[in-house]
Amino acid sequence: MKLSIIGTGYVGLVTGTCLSEMGNKVSCIDIDEDKINNLKNNIISIYEPNLKEMVKDNQAKKNLFFTTNYKKALDNSDICFIAVGTPMNNDGTTNLDYVYDVALKIAKNMSKNMIIVVKSTVPVGTTEKIKDIIHRELRKRNIDLNFDIIFNPEFLKEGNAVNDFMRPDRIIIGGGSSKTKETIKELYSSIVMNHDRFIFMDIKSAEMTKYASNAMLATRISFMNEIANICEKTGANIKNVRIGVGSDKRIGYDFLYAGCGYGGSCFPKDIRSLIKTAEKNDYSSILLSSVEEVNENQKNVLFNKIIERFGDDLSKFTFTVWGLAFKAETDDVRESFSLKLIEKLISKGAKIKAYDPKAIDSFKEIFKNKNNIKYFSNKTDALKDSDALILLTEWKEFRHLDFEDLSLNLNKRIIFDGRNIYNRTFIEENGFELYQIGC
Description:
Elements: E1 2-6, H1 10-21, E2 25-29, H2 33-40, H3 51-60, E3 64-67, H4 70-75, E4 79-82, H5 97-109, E5 114-118, H6 126-140, E6 147-151, H7 161-166, E7 171-174, H8 178-188, E8 198-201, H9 203-234, H10 238-246, H11 267-280, H12 286-298, H13 301-310, E9 318-322, H14 337-347, E10 351-355, H15 360-366, E11 373-375, E12 388-391, H16 403-409, E13 414-417, H17 424-429, E14 433-435
Parallel strand pairs: 1-2, 1-4, 2-3, 4-5, 5-6, 7-8, 9-10, 9-12, 10-11, 12-13, 13-14
């Protein structure tokens, strides 16, 4: 099939690349000329396992194209995906300017009947507004074109996005005529051999499903962090509790890890957007507000442990931070716990030595003009003359510690484990203090 993907951010680039991998002709559109030129040269601004190789391969096969030309791309497309960002406004609402601008550009440039697929995460009712924008502009152009519009949410986990796209749990289609549904089923047939994975519903329910899914996962994280904090007060161990709770087949183990709280580009934004959607519809979401509150409070837990161990004045201490990304296998530091913790440590006078295998450049871009922080290209160099190690991201290379390196480089044998990945008995047998969350 011939497709257009508008937006070459995380969702758009993964979607376009994966669909081109299936033999479709895909044109990815973006208004950023520098970004498009970089993509044409296989220079990708985000890190996602296997993505760069797939982009390079499919450009070579002439299945994947990058352009700033809306008209040329739409003229050669039967299906157009909207995959632009929907950032959060200062008041917690969703900024839909990019989505509505794209809707207008589609209407001004389309010259044939097509299916329009909204993949951007948008509040309930937005897809219908996109449809209205396109209809109005086509009437202004005095052109008679038929288009159908559906909402098709993405469920991509950063660090596993390519695999998630190629092996989806479900594909949700909101709205669309019978013909449109069959076309979309055919488009996805190469990755979904079992058609039972298709779920068809109305547009508003599909829009809500995306938010509800992320809200449920965020709720599980905040729930376990709440239980972890109670564990610390009572002497229970959250790791044991997780095994006991997760073994219930009605619950399962996924997203039941206690830690520093959730971050990234999706959960914080989507929780706040859903709360605002509720408020606009005269409903107070007590549970979601609590999920957000627990998460915000959780960001202070590790900092408080550091202060309790070293005192309120940290001007004489240096800390090594391993992990800046909000999770492993990504360079994304948006809403990362590391941002808040490092800023608070520096505010208390601490010096920071930071290392992350992928996210240093992304972190520097957000954490600009900050003194008292140095960045290192490997984890061992970052340890030298530090007073404690702080683990914030569960990268695989951090899972097994070299105690000889730690002993030679650290001034004090102290580890703060913000992801609960280390075995307390093993750490303490090697002469180290270990501080974790809930255990």
